[in-house]
Amino acid sequence: MKSLYTFLIIWLVVLSFAPLHAQQESHFSQYYQNPYIINPALGGLTRTIQMDVGYRNQWVGVEGTPQTFYITGHSEINIGDKKRDVLEDFNPNGESVFAMPTNSIGRNKHVVGGRILSDWIGPFNKSSIMASYAYHIRFSRAHMMSAGLSAGWTNFGINSSKVILVDQDDAEYDNFFGRNANQNIFDINLGIAYYAENFQFGFSSAQLLQNNVQLDQIMTQNNHFRHFYWYGMYQHEATDEFILEPHFLLQTARNIPMSLNIGTRILFERKYWANVAYRLGDAINVGIGLNFGSKLRFGYSYDFGTGPFQVITNNAHELHLGILIGKNKSIETN
Model's pTM, two decimal places? Predict the structure, then answer.
């Protein structure tokens, strides 16, 4: 019950910061399925190898709309103790539709991971490849704390084939794009988290180095500003079969209005789920999902626009597919 009170207090504090709101780049409605995508300290929560693929298409029906694709993977690794098992058999009966494993607690952990992400909006594209490391420390018998860092390469560029010119014979434009208008940078993300078996909270920051936007040696007045993420989730067992999972995600960045998502997911036997959420001033989100095929996870969500762009068709489709790999008993027996 104390954990529930803590969650409610944090949620009220987050709500008090919500007079401004807007959509941010690399936004995900199903952040609760894979919080590692926003925070490197939230990888390796369960004793599995977790891999996820996601795709989001916003403002469907409008040309050049925002699209995002990602692949992530993360797992605890064994350092110093060869006899220690870092994976568990989360589906011992081999059920086709299986229950999600719970967060593992009670011992320190080393976790590594990686992320590939691509964003497109109109003629602009941004791609990144990041590798991460996190250390999880036992805070108490039932609680854990973790800190994670990810670092890697990011490319930002302009696709000249999607630029429409008033003057089709613009020599300066042809010369500019003939020299390849893109930028390669090194960047760092940081995160911390606090969690137990039935809840998790995290704070993270992306684009820590705030690199200047520079295309073809032309320095602009813009920066890749730091983004900050506050995330929380709590699982309450309403009955033996149903779990209520309230969650939130607050995103902020300099010179950009904040975005606040609040919602609740309902889980049945930890196998099936349905979600309803609201992004303040922007959209209502509904989603469904299940765990199937003995190790696969699937989720689909749809955003109904409620903000000023709804007349244009401010909606979004988001797909998620994940795989969990645990201890293989047949290999271990041999």
Answer: 0.85
